[in-house]
Design goal:
Blueprint (H helix, E strand, L loop, with lengths): L17 E2 L37 E10 L6 H17 L6 E4 L5 E2 L7 H15 L5 E10 L5 E10 L3 E7 L28 E3 L2 E7 L2 H6 L10 E9 L9 H16 L3 E8 L10 E2 L22 E7 L2 E9 L2
Parallel strand pairs: 2-3, 2-11, 3-5, 4-5, 9-10, 10-11
Antiparallel strand pairs: 1-13, 2-14, 5-6, 6-7, 8-9, 11-12, 13-14
Helix pairs in contact: 1-2
Length: 325
């Protein structure tokens, strides 16, 4: 996927995040909304951590209506810290897995080597201290003359441990063929770090954007993971860039969930447009041998237990919290 041109703006101090009146997942007009993931109907709640702040949960973080190319890595890292504080304010102070989009940081034509990845991880440690969270996000770099990022990674950073997993993209989109340096084996990690990480007894597989298609198309059997975390890059208005978020949900998220028999969680940046309210950021497969082309959103058995907008220095963040990981 061609990445947008990246400019920079001077880093500034993060301001406190605030919850907005936006409700991205308003299901009042849906007579048959999907059930929250792993929550029996009788126990549904708007805040799965309310009774037990240490209960496990997973949050997908989507940047809505973003402006193209106006950010720096430092401001994006500051936004991660804002999101952590905002989640705590909303009743999610600890024990979460927090998923950000692909290319959340962009090194431009620089190489996101081990030192760069450690710098990014170390920058988040003060915000993570004492939370028990694990953060997963994408880093791009090594831009070529055609604007493609040769190096596309997903990192996991854990409170107390720092950098704990580094995953390189293994499945390019058709447009990226010949432009991206790929991982030779989808099970392999990078720079001495494992591909997967564990959190509260669950094993997670970070995937970089089109990797979910690679899983769907038969990259190999499930290597023993409980969920896939798909750091998708971005979607644009039609005619201005990649815009097939429905196709991605069907053949990427749902296809990977079908192939590996585990949930797939994914998120992205939406440039110049809002995320469609029904676009799923958590998908499980329960449709047997049905073609993913015929799969519908209302056949997805999982849904967020809580959902809200959060204003940050980067703009509107849509937060969806899934209970029970």
């Amino acid at each position: 996927m061609r990445k947008p041109r990246q400019n920079t703006k001077p880093p500034g101090g993060p301001s406190p995040p605030s919850r907005t009146a936006v409700t991205p997942d308003d299901t009042r007009n849906n007579p048959h909304p999907p059930k929250p993931f792993q929550i029996p109907v009788a126990q549904e709640t708007q805040n799965p951590a309310a009774e037990d702040p240490s209960s496990p949960w997973l949050a997908t973080i989507t940047l809505d209506n973003a402006r193209e190319g106006i950010y720096s890595p430092k401001t994006r890292l500051a936004t991660v810290s804002q999101v952590i504080r905002g989640l705590a304010t909303e009743g999610y102070p600890s024990s979460g897995v927090i998923l950000f989009p692909g290319g959340w940081l962009d090194a431009g034509d620089g190489i996101p080597d081990t030192a760069y990845c450690k710098w990014a991880a170390d920058s988040l440690m003060p915000a993570l201290r004492g939370t028990g969270h694990t953060i997963c996000f994408g880093i791009d770099g090594g831009a070529d003359a055609d604007g493609f990022a040769r190096d596309q990674l997903a990192l996991a950073v854990r409170d107390g441990d720092g950098l704990c997993a580094v995953a390189r993209k293994f499945a390019p989109s058709p447009q990226e063929e010949g432009h991206v340096t790929l991982c030779e084996d989808f099970r392999n990690g990078e720079a001495g770090y494992p591909r997967t990480f564990t959190h509260r007894g669950k094993t997670y597989f970070p995937a970089v954007c089109y990797d979910s298609y690679g899983i769907s198309h038969g990259a190999g059997p499930n290597p023993g993971v409980d969920a896939v975390l798909n750091c998708v890059h971005c979607f644009y208005p039609k005619g201005q860039g990649p815009s097939g978020e429905t196709y991605f949900a069907k053949h990427g998220f749902a296809g990977a969930a079908k192939r590996w028999g585990c949930p797939v969680f994914g998120t992205a940046i939406f440039y110049g447009r809002r995320m469609p309210p029904r676009w799923p950021t958590g998908v499980a497969w329960t449709c047997g041998e049905k073609s993913t082309a015929r799969w519908r959103y209302d056949e997805n058995p999982i849904a967020p237990a809580d959902s809200f907008g959060m204003m940050t220095d980067e703009g509107l963040i849509t937060v969806r919290v899934f209970d029970g990981e």
